[in-house]
Design goal:
488 residues; alpha/beta; Rossmann fold; GMP Synthetase, Chain A, domain 3; 14-stranded mixed beta sheet; 6-stranded mixed beta sheet; globular
């Protein structure tokens, strides 16, 4: 498909024309074929057009991962509207900040979300409000609205960063961007039309549909640790999944439940995890739970996903991580250009790398670099290195680097070494009150913990290390410092 036609809505309708009976989406209520999904999207577009939505209007979707969500999303694209998605787990100040930037003109949501929206000043001006619930989007009177011919560079999707390092930043994805992201994901993950993929990441469902495969929607909660695992397992068994693609936190919880219930998901050949650092011991646990599967770790960010990927960890890279050498995330994907700044920060460029933020010139000045030839690079904020075989290794966040006596210390490298040495699932290294402090979740041998790295001056145990709301895996350093202050 050429660039001017690079529109995921058109691709979906193409699958409906060629394979109308193939299952497109599955959730707890059953399957929906590509043909039925296409008709429902046409009807949704007709409904939206009737309500006055036009090209360029921003539509906030307050709908959980479900068939209704994707019918509404694709219906919006067919009238040329821009879909706005915000994380349901954002705290109220971060949510209000995101909505103030987004300025949606319409809201589509489940009844509870529509009622709750009335309490937010940023949404009181919204004129168009449509309710969907219980697959109501599949009920229609046959009216259709053909896809509006939008330019490839027209905005299609507006999402926001998790806000763990500051106010959420708006990420505007054009139709061309989404097409480029799909191609990058397709080449990295190799999704095939006959795959049945259990998905816990809403945006990646779009790539699964573009591949003509079957997207099985995981019933995720606003917080990963509240996701009903029994419902997930039941759905996975019913739908005979071949692939799992989700956050490390959810994948590991699912693996633990499989072990506890002595359940086997026969036929799973691939497990893709991404969105937070994944230690070698995490991959070992996933491999034990899915013995017939290749475990693939995908590295990326909200602004650029994917950047690289690695299939499992060999003995040498595992041993290097245990000795504080960082975390291997594999070779960069073909669709991305990667370079390291003088300070080691990872910079990337490519068709699926976000070029600008929404009304945020300060963020653009900080996170974007433009070469003399016009190439725009995104500063990831991650520090890394590239080994002799071309593999990328993560060392940690640039803003969290600790400098002592001229020596540079990368927290992630030490955290991963501690996790592997102590058998822990979560650790954090911070400089707190002029002492380099290793924070561990749960009980551990404090003597052994101090010996993990020569830089560690204090070890503190906590019941739970604060993490991001999106993937339940990245340490929220601001909240962690507040926790340490409160307990000091």
């Amino acid at each position: 498909m050429s660039a001017p036609e690079a529109n995921l809505a058109l691709i979906l309708h193409g699958h409906a024309a060629s394979t109308p009976t193939r299952p497109a989406l599955c959730d707890g209520a059953g399957e929906v074929s590509y043909g039925a999904l296409s008709r429902a999207c046409d009807a949704m577009a007709a409904r939206l057009w009737k309500h006055g939505l036009r090209p360029g209007h921003r539509v906030l979707l307050a709908v959980p991962m479900s068939v209704d969500l994707y019918v509404a999303l694709i219906g919006c694209w067919q009238v040329g509207a821009v879909v706005v998605l915000v994380e349901p787990g954002l705290d109220r100040p971060a949510l209000r900040s995101a909505l103030e930037r987004a300025r949606p003109s319409a809201l589509i949501g489940v009844p509870l979300a529509l009622a709750w929206a009335l309490t937010l000043p940023e949404l009181r001006h919204v004129r168009h409000r449509l309710a969907v619930t219980g697959r109501s989007s599949l009920e229609h009177d046959g009216r259709r609205h053909a896809a509006f011919p939008v330019a490839s560079e027209a905005p299609a999707l507006l999402t926001f960063t998790s806000g763990t390092t500051g106010p959420p930043k708006g990420i505007v994805r054009s139709h061309a961007f989404l097409w480029g992201q799909h191609r990058a994901v397709q080449r990295a993950l190799g999704t095939a039309p006959m795959d049945r993929e259990l998905l816990g990441l809403p945006v990646f469902v779009l790539s699964t549909l573009a591949s003509g495969a079957t997207a099985v929607l995981c019933p995720v909660s606003a917080r990963v640790d509240a996701t009903p695992l029994d419902d997930v397992l039941r759905l996975a068994l019913q739908q005979r999944i071949t692939t799992v693609s989700t956050s490390p936190a959810l994948a590991l919880r699912l693996a633990a439940r499989l072990g506890a219930t002595h359940t086997r998901l026969r036929g799973v050949t691939t497990v893709n995890v991404g969105g937070a650092p994944v230690a070698p011991s995490d991959v070992a646990r996933l491999s034990a739970a899915f013995p017939d599967a290749v475990v693939r770790v995908v590295y990326g960010s909200t602004e650029a996903e994917p950047i690289s990927h690695v299939e499992g960890f060999d003995a040498a890279s595992t041993e290097a991580t245990r000795h504080g050498a960082g975390l291997c995330v594999g070779a960069p994907v073909d669709a991305v250009a990667l370079r390291l700044a003088q300070n080691g920060e990872i910079l990337v460029s490519g068709a699926h790398v976000n070029g600008a933020y929404l009304d945020d010139p300060e963020a653009e000045r900080h996170h974007k670099v433009i070469d003399e030839d016009g190439t725009r690079w995104h500063r990831t904020g991650d520090v890394g290195r590239v080994d002799g075989t071309g593999r990328l290794w993560l060392l940690g966040r640039l803003e969290q680097v600790i400098v002592r006596g001229g020596q540079v210390l990368h927290p992630l490298a030490v955290e991963m070494a501690a996790r592997e040495a102590l058998g822990l699932q979560r650790t954090a290294l911070v400089e707190h009150r002029d002492r380099i402090t290793l924070v561990v979740e749960g009980r551990t041998d404090l003597g052994r913990a101090r010996q993990v790295h020569a830089s560690i001056e204090r070890v503190v145990t906590v019941e739970a290390i604060p993490v991001d709301v999106r993937h339940n895996g990245k340490v929220d350093v601001r909240r962690l410092r507040a926790l340490l202050d409160a307990s000091a």
